[in-house]
Design brief:
This protein is of the alpha+beta class and about 60 residues long. It is built from two helices and four strands; from the N terminus they run βαββαβ. The longest helix is centred in the first third of the chain and has 5 residues.
Length: about 60
């Protein structure tokens, strides 16, 4: 099962991951982007590829 991870040191909180994820895995909570629904991840890697700060990695 794929597991999305956000490197909070690299994340600029731009919201690209929220916009590109077809499964609504990510959410903005306060001033952070979080992996809100990790079990919904289908491993498409759209978030990983589109993240401008390379803050997201999908672990298998």
């Amino acid at each position: 099962m794929p597991k999305p991870k956000i490197d909070s040191k690299k994340c600029t909180k731009c919201g690209t991951c929220i916009d590109v994820c077809p499964m609504n895995v990510f959410e903005k909570k306060g001033d952070k982007i979080i992996v809100a629904n990790p079990d919904e991840c289908i491993g498409c890697r759209a978030c990983e590829v589109q993240c401008p700060s390379e803050a997201i990695k999908i672990e298998d």
